[in-house]
Amino acid sequence: MKVDNNKRKSIISNVNRVIIKIGSSVLTDSDGSLSESVFEKLALEISKIRDKNIEVIVVSSGAIASGMKKLGIVKRPKEISMKQAIAASGQSTLIRHYERAFSAFNLHVAQILLTLDGLLDRKRYLNARKTLITLLRMGIIPIVNENDTVAVEEIMLGDNDNLAAHITSLIEADLLIMLTDIEGLYSKDPRNNKDAEFISLIERIGEEIENTAGDTFGRATIGGMKTKIEAAKKAAAFGVPTIIANGKNGSTLGDIFDGEEVGTLFLPSEESLSGRKHWIAFTLKSAGEIVIDDGAKKAITSSGKSLLPSGIKEVHGNFGVGESVTCVDENGTEVARGLTSYSAGDIRKIMGSKTSDVEGILGYKYSDEVIHRDDLAVLKD
What we know:
Elements: H1 5-13, E1 17-22, H2 24-27, H3 36-50, E2 55-60, H4 63-71, H5 80-103, E3 109-114, H6 116-120, H7 122-137, E4 141-146, H8 152-157, H9 160-170, E5 175-180, E6 185-186, E7 198-199, E8 201-202, H10 207-212, E9 215-217, E10 222-224, H11 225-237, E11 242-246, H12 252-257, E12 264-266, H13 275-283, E13 289-292, H14 294-302, E14 312-316, E15 324-328, E16 334-339, H15 344-350, H16 358-362, E17 376-378
Helix pairs in contact: 3-5, 4-5, 9-11
């Protein structure tokens, strides 16, 4: 589907803060080395965006690719400790390229290294937000990357696409741009299918769209269109549009901010989650699963109600009070995520019961709700 160019221009005209995620495939030459000319072009384009009084945060891959070239390593290793060592070696080179490129336009950059566990804790999450916003107010461009040297679990994922989505929610950006080495989303992988059709507009990210994506495992990269669509889905839930475009073209960012039809535009959800509920839904890891009946499903999805014990059919996992859990319907479809007021063991004792019976069953009662609606994030299809 093609996008109404007036709609695209309207979206761009309302952008005051943008996240630009840049993949390793954009930053490197064919031999795997960081390309100085690419950094110079990106700095030029971003400086022009800044001239429009738009705040820019860059989420950049490239540390491992940079380290591999620097250390003469041809194939991406599998050992976690080796990946961490390579990332540590390459990160300094990566940030030096950004500093050199942006200094030509009298712009300062700051290196921010984050891990998912740093975003799971609400206080650390808000502190990261405060730091990023302070940098923006100072006119400094944050260069954000995963802290690969310590994030064992995250380095296995190698997923800066989803990190960019988390940052979009964290600092309440108006647009997420993901630069890669192809034009955007196609019906099939265009590198292997000549009949692949380019898709310029995605109104809703459903199962069909998710199935068109595939993984890409390059010499120094892991990920692909699959993780980009996951990131776009997270951003859409927060009410933010996403554009996936070819960063190898030196005019891509300029064309986007001129309202040109560049890349694939993912429209935001009509009903967006608040920042805290987005954090519950997409940042916190689910510690267990609660199966709910159709009545409870309708109550929390259509009526904005809390989850009561009477609507619970089963409990899976062993979680404690205050942990994040996933609510699924009787078909196993994910409906919502929330912070539970009771432990898994206690919910098993009270599930199917009336709220008036909870104290008699447990000997105490924290609240009438198993998950209060303020702690419940409903996931739209």
